[in-house]
Amino acid sequence: MRKSVRAFTGEIVPIDVVQSIVLGANRAPSSKNTQPWKLILVQGAALENLRSDYQSAFNGGVKPADFEYVYSPDPLPDAYKKRAVELGKTFLAHKGIDRQNKEKRREHDGENYKFFGAKQVFFLALNKGEYALGTFLDCGIFFQTLIIELHNRGLGCCPQYSVMAYPDLLRKHIPNSEDQMFLLALPFGYPQKGHIANTFVSQREPLETFFRVVE
Length: 215
Known about the structure:
single chain, alpha+beta, 4-stranded antiparallel β-sheet, NADH Oxidase, globular
């Protein structure tokens, strides 16, 4: 069962294993075999410098830039909002954080901008001006295939949209990315066994709420 992993060991996934995972994900389908995705692995000193800048921005109260694309409808439909609120409540409760404790909640939010301590992070991107709604769908299929490839190797990961809030920092630390739009980040690695963040499993809707058979 796939789930989000938010605590990793310090062990680096060898590059040959990473390449094998990425090649597996690259078999994802896309319209007319267009393969619009770009995938960037950031690790080592580059990741530590990026992480440092992200933490400085978040802790310093730097206002996020405008996101380069809109992820969700605004306002959220009631059913979506209910699930989002419930996720937030249950995850905080699981970690023993009182919802009224602003300091602990901010610390919890700040974990996003540390990439949850991962030593390796994928960034998904596409070329600016070369996309439509279907292009995002193709990239999403690729991204999910990448997640499954990681899971099948015993690795964990956690998709992130929140860190798209500072695209200027991404371009500062990722060379030759001026013509690309960043879509998502994916911190990954070997999960810390027993870590409280990794024992949380989000709820899913019952089958009958989203699935039906027509015959």
